[in-house]
Amino acid sequence: MLDLGTSFVGSVARDPHALAVVDDGIRLTYAEWYRRISSVVASFDRIGLKAGDHIVTVLQNCEAAATLHWACQIAGVVITPINWRAKDDELDFCIENSEARAVVYQDVSAQAVAKSKHAQNLPRIAVGCDDAGAIAFAGIVAEAAVDATPRVTAEDWSIMLYTSGTTSRPKGVPRRHRAERAAGVAHVAQNLYRRGERTLGVMPLYHTMGVRSLIAMSVIGGTFVCLPRYDTKKALALIEAEKVTNLYLVPTLYHDLVHAREFASADVSSVRKLGFAGASMTDGLLKKLNDAFRPDLFVNHYGSSEIYTFTIDQCAPAKPGSAGKAGINQEVRVVKLNATSAADLAAPEEEGEIIARLAGDESFDGYWRRPDADAKSLRDGWYFTGDTGFVDSDGDLFVTGRVDDMIITGGENVSPVEIESCLSLHPTVLEVAVVGLPDEKWGKVVTAFVRRKAPVSETDLDQFCRTSGLADFKRPRRFVFVDALPKSPVGKLLRRLLVAGDYQPEHAPPA
């Protein structure tokens, strides 16, 4: 297996004149990009960074972030990207935990870096902003350098992502070059990408989806079109102007895209392949996207930071809710809830916990200095995902939620995802999230938080559930109308905040 640095140099040799990256006026071919990347590698040497050192980046998606990613792969430096919204204490945790040797930031993260006690003691590289104590990225890339030569093997560390912490500090997920490249190649194969594809690079480069999109484009001489942060108008403008051929987004961003007023007049005909991951997609959104784009391929990709691909369904609209079958580098099982062994299999149609084989080519080796997390999630050569699901009679996997999200009401296990998909088909429902709220009689009562686009009553929605075929014990007993649902920076629904009462109640009913 090639290391990623050698893989990229091979891409340059194969497609030197192909457009590689686009970002707000910057347009670089692979040959031009390689020269720029080589300049960054030379700057690492001047700073004193060595193979195996970690460098923390606090950047939005931009050419600099993508360039730094590839420079790290060639130099053997372990890129450790974190959310550009991180506060100074969060930044300090990641710097200390990873033992970082340098920090790269820009204007949106400059305040956190300035307040960080650890960042001030490290070499700092500033992208597009002034800092008297920092090295200017613009100066680095302006200096000519000899073509950089890859310095590590496929067994060395490539990147360390941090999982989003919900109740505790985030966990570091270090990944080797071989696992990263295997994930990138599988992404190409499973999404049927062709040479010269163009993707909208909006999923953050501190997130597993963004990183693998970047790698996949390099494998096929494709173009990574940067969008620093999601904005529907800008996304539609870039799709049209750059003739983007594929989209790989979380469902929330798709929702915002097709419900935008500008969507009807935008030219999105160049987009022929849709892919989504990060969360389940409701039946209603799936149908709307399929009708709007009429794509040649519509992929549901189910995976994680730890193991990129679990399963793939390459025709998501044909079987709504299905995550399909194991990816080309993986084997998955469903074991009984609270199983202690990978051999304790759930029966077909029985809901249990989803596990994935650790021997897969895309897998990580374990968490960064967290033996407690390893003991909880890694057993018998399998990764226990914490996700719930079942396998149907066709052998297709259905993901129903998180073990922690399961609603136990009156002794029955209820999955929020099934109820959300049902309610999403009601014409007045714009968004919906279902959780269990404490109840003296039932333990938990099924509660639906609904963002509505037209007048509808709780009675109307309850009747819709009754006639939809949803089992009686799964019907929401409470409905709460809201102006917005709480979500993470990458668009994941944060159910825990709904349970905690941290949401925006509806200010006024729709006209």
From TrEMBL:
Family: Belongs to the ATP-dependent AMP-binding enzyme family.
AMP-binding enzyme C-terminal domain sequence ranges: 418-492
Gene3D superfamilies assigned: 3.30.300.30, N-terminal domain of ligase-like
Highest taxon of the lineage: Bacteria
GO MF annotation terms: medium-chain fatty acid-CoA ligase activity
InterPro entries in alphabetical order: AMP-bd_C, AMP-bd_C_sf, AMP-binding_CS, AMP-dep_synth/lig_dom, ANL_N_sf
Gene Ontology biological process terms from the UniProt entry: fatty acid metabolic process
Pfam family, one: AMP-binding_C
Keywords noted in UniProt: Ligase
Domain named AMP-dependent synthetase/ligase: residues: 11-368
This protein's name: 2-furoate---CoA ligase
SUPFAM superfamilies assigned to the protein according to its UniProt record, in alphabetical order: Acetyl-CoA synthetase-like
